[in-house]
Amino acid sequence: MHFHIITILPEFFESPLSCGLLGKALEKKIVETSIIFPRDFTKDRHSTVDDRPYGGGPGMVMMVDPLYQAVKTLPQGCRKILLTPKGKPFNHETAVRLSQEKDIALVCGRYEGIDARLEDLCDFEHISAGDFVLNGGESAALCLMESVSRFLPGFMGKEESVGDESFSKGLLEYPHYTRPENYENHSVPQVLLSGNHGKIAQWKRECSLQSTLKFRPELLDEADLSAEDISFLKQIERPRPSRNLYITLVHWPVMNKKGKEGTTSLTNLDIHDIARVSETFGLGGYYICTPLKDQQILAERLVSHWTAGPGGKGNPDRAMALSTIQICSYLEEAVQKIQEQTGIKPHIVATSASGPGDTTFGSIRRKLQSHPVLIVLGTGYGLSQSVLSRADEILRPVSYLSSFNHLSVRSAASILIDRLIGDYY
Ligand SMILES: C[S@@+](CC[C@H](N)C(=O)[O-])C[C@H]1O[C@@H](n2cnc3c(N)ncnc32)[C@H](O)[C@@H]1O
């Protein structure tokens, strides 16, 4: 594997490439590196590689020509990587894939970045070290070189050690311990001293699962999990911000098709389906608001049929879901009930298919970590202006980039809840 590093700071690489496993791999020629210095391709006596940006703005921009001339010296078939914050965040999979290459070029920008025409002229793979800005691509290039090299035969002391580490099986790694057996009253887990290899392997797997669920639950979406893994994960206690999420379905005041405020009738499907989603995701509660007495009586009959009545006896799951329903006259009553239950006034988040909401799902997800949030869903042609203006925030439409957002309220509820809670909250 040969890394061709295009940089105006060659000295950046001196120490990292001369020590540790990477240093040894260079000695053994498992890895080879060469520096391509863009200043060698300049034509002025100051070897200038940067200039002021067209259109103004702070900082300098790397000129296209010295970099393009540098790229042109790369061998045929070389994979050309541009290190840039806009690239795909670098990860284990990319490292494994790149370890199959023979030649990799790493183009390191500096200053405000590189003249954009370099990307028109070269066929780059864009890679980022993460969602932050570095002073230059050099430290990103080092991360990439080190992690890619670990997959080269002969690089690691023991060939199997990369196969056991974090991300290699889609999970984070289990914890390690070494002597002494007891330190400041913290002992090494007994199982590791037992000599029972089966038990040790099981302990390692369970620790990996536990750590992944705690620190990086989203990795579990891709991990290969056995039935035992899943039943182990299910019984782990975890914080449930989903308990902070409440949902209410408002039947008054909502808009009708003539653009006037009015009241809608209950829809059986909305009662059932939203209750089932709400129970599946472990929500704090589901409130159905209608000021009409006959509709309240109907809702109560329905709910009691499926909870205490014959429906509930035949369908215990349905009974469990529908028992989360509370019937209220007005939105204020739902707010008050949540406040009585939690001791805190919930943050009211209205929804609308046509805007003007601009609150992001991410900001509500963060709010849920510490505060009750009530998502207000409208029936008919949507919540009236009087409800929207009473809300603390209005959520973005489900598909805010689409011009068509006409979902049934129960579909919208499912999507909103899944986006806010997902599998792990
Ligand atoms: C100061 S940065 C330029 C940042 C740029 N103005 C922006 O806002 O996206 C200079 C150079 O550092 C490198 N760089 C900065 N952050 C990086 C990251 N997260 N991953 C990879 N390279 C990065 C790129 O090569 C970039 O051209």
| Rounded Rg | 29 Å
The CATH class of the largest domain turns out to be: Alpha Beta
Spell out the CATH superfamily of the largest domain.
Answer: SPOUT methyltransferase, trefoil knot domain
How many domains?
Answer: 3
| 3D shape | flat
DSSP E strands, number: 17
As laid out across the biggest beta sheet, the strand order is 14-13-10-16-15-17
Say which molecules are bound, naming each kind only once: S-adenosylmethionine
Beta-strand residue percentage: 15-25%
Calculate the mean pLDDT score and round it: 96
- Fraction of residues in H or I helices: 25-40%
Written account of the structure:
The protein is built from 15 helices and 17 strands. With 425 residues, the chain is of the alpha/beta class. It has 3 domains: 2-149, SPOUT methyltransferase, trefoil knot domain (Alpha/beta knot), CATH 3.40.1280; 166-177 and 194-238, Trp Operon Repressor, Chain A; 241-421, 3-Layer(aba) Sandwich (Alpha/beta knot). The protein is flat. The chain binds S-adenosylmethionine. The site of S-adenosylmethionine has 19 residues, from strand 5.
